[in-house]
Design goal:
alpha/beta; 5-stranded mixed β-sheet; 13 helices; about 55% helix; about 20% strand
Length: about 325
């Protein structure tokens, strides 16, 4: 009963979990009892995360060498993002979400030509979340990457938005991976530049946007940066200069043509979807969490989203007491 209570608590509010247990299973349990069980076992899952992190750090101390480690053909990817939750006495605080995935292929229709194309996609996602700074989050994410045999992958990538903390972690833990700025974030910056250039002239804005979106999709971020720098100098527009800097700084992460040819993932939808799924449990109407309560719920939610709850429950259940 504890296992089912904790699993439900990772999906819905404690009182709702208790109601489901009573209506469906005929089990009489209070919401507070569900809460107590989730606190106990959430802490146990959190400790298992710490053990995985410690094991990964020990491997790093051995210069990253794992006896018998052999490269495989599978490619892997990682993506990161941040989301907000309400902590009692602290207000809205950011928790960080990471997703590890295998890079696969799927067929999609090209929007303009309706031609079938093979593109990269994220498969077999597992998740890590942390309420706090990037350093501890990065260690947890790298531990999950090691658990999934990241270093054995034939090749790897990181796809994310332009947040500095993400690329700092990429440099620390995933330094030899292909780096890609999420295509949809890049398009948002391009749209903002079009608005700055053409204001309320929507027809001119759309023409500029269409032409430069094609250029961006073909991997010409350097040309877009040069164009925007020129326009910013002529108009003395600091916002436009900032957008030019964005494309200039990230141009080596915007080679979308080559990335598509190699069938890499160019969108960070997997982590954005994951962040929304965390928020669906953590940021409902009126929800405020104690810091400890949030820290114990995050590993439960991660285990459920990554389809690893049953396995991790067995590990935590059979772990020796402190």
């Amino acid at each position: 009963m504890s296992k089912l209570s904790v699993w439900l608590s990772g999906l819905v509010a404690y009182d709702t979990a208790a109601e489901i247990l009573e209506r469906v299973g005929g089990v009489h349990i209070s919401g507070s009892s569900v809460w107590h069980r989730s606190q106990k076992w959430g802490e146990a899952l959190r400790k298992e995360e710490e053990l995985i992190k410690i094991a990964a750090q020990e491997v790093e101390l051995r210069n990253g060498v794992v006896p018998g480690e052999v490269k495989c053909e599978q490619r892997m990817g990682v993506s990161m993002d941040g989301a907000m939750m309400n902590i009692r006495g602290e207000g809205w605080k950011e928790f960080k979400v990471g997703v590890l995935f295998e890079v696969g292929e799927e067929v999609m229709l090209e929007k303009q030509t309706q031609e079938e194309l093979e593109v990269g996609c994220a498969l077999n996602n597992t998740y890590v979340a942390h309420l706090g700074g990037p350093e501890s989050f990065g260690q947890k994410l790298w531990a999950e990457a090691r658990r999934r045999r990241w270093t054995q992958a034939a090749d790897t990538q990181i796809v994310a938005d332009g947040a500095m903390w993400i690329w700092n972690l990429a440099r620390e833990h995933f330094y030899d991976s292909q780096q890609v700025i999420d295509w949809y974030h890049a398009k948002q910056h391009l749209f903002h530049a079009a608005e700055l250039l053409h204001g309320e002239d929507t027809s001119a804005m759309q023409r500029w946007l269409s032409a430069h979106e094609t250029a961006l999709f073909q991997g010409h971020a350097d040309e877009i940066a040069a164009t925007l720098h020129q326009q910013a100098a002529q108009t003395h527009n600091d916002d436009l200069r900032q957008e030019a800097g964005y494309f200039e700084h990230h141009q080596h992460r915007m080679d979308y043509l080559e990335m598509r040819i190699q069938r890499w993932v160019i969108g960070s939808g997997s982590v954005e979807s994951g962040a929304k799924q965390y928020k669906s449990r953590l940021t409902g109407p009126g929800m405020r969490w104690s810091r400890k309560g949030a820290e114990r719920m995050l590993p439960i939610r991660s285990a459920i989203l990554g389809q690893r709850f049953d396995f991790l429950w067995q590990v935590a259940y059979n772990s020796p007491p402190n």
